[in-house]
Amino acid sequence: MISKALSPELTERIPRTKVDVTTRDCEVVIGVEAEDLTALRAALNSYIRWGNVAEETAEEVGKR
């Protein structure tokens, strides 16, 4: 569910990075390749934040 929620973000380009989101067993795997540490940090911060939002939203929906 979270990997599906992140899929639209894959169309948005974060400069100097390549990102891949997959699901393995019950885990979401986010692979990030970056040209430098600044680009890596930006991509990681974005995907961690988006993943947290997706997870929190799923939890709230499940409570109803």
What does this structure look like?
By secondary structure, the chain is α+β, with helices and mostly antiparallel strands. It has a single domain (about 1-64), classed as TATA-Binding Protein. Helix content is about 50%, strand content about 25%. The chain contains two helices and two strands. It has helices at about 1-5, 35-64, and strands at about 15-25, 25-35. A two-stranded antiparallel sheet has the order 1-2. A hairpin with a 2-residue loop joins β1 (about 15-25) and β2 (about 25-35).
Question: What's a concise summary of this model?
Answer:
The chain has two helices and two strands. It has 64 residues and is an alpha+beta fold. A two-stranded antiparallel sheet has the order 1-2.
Map the helices and strands.
Layout: H1 2-6, E1 17-24, E2 27-34, H2 37-63
Antiparallel strand pairs: 1-2
Domain module count: 1
The portion of residues assigned to helices is 40-55%
CATH structural class: Alpha Beta
Shape assignment: elongated
* CATH topology grouping: TATA-Binding Protein
Segments where pLDDT lies below 50 for 5+ residues?
Answer: none
The order of strands across the largest sheet is 1-2
So what's the oligomer here?
single chain
Give the integer mean of the pLDDT values: 89
Question: What portion of residues belong to β-strands?
Answer: 25-35%
Instruction: Please tally the β strands and state the result.
Output: 2
Structural class: alpha+beta
Largest sheet report: 2 strands, antiparallel
Order of helices and strands: HEEH
Q: Would you identify the CATH architecture?
A: 2-Layer Sandwich
Distance between the termini: 17 Å
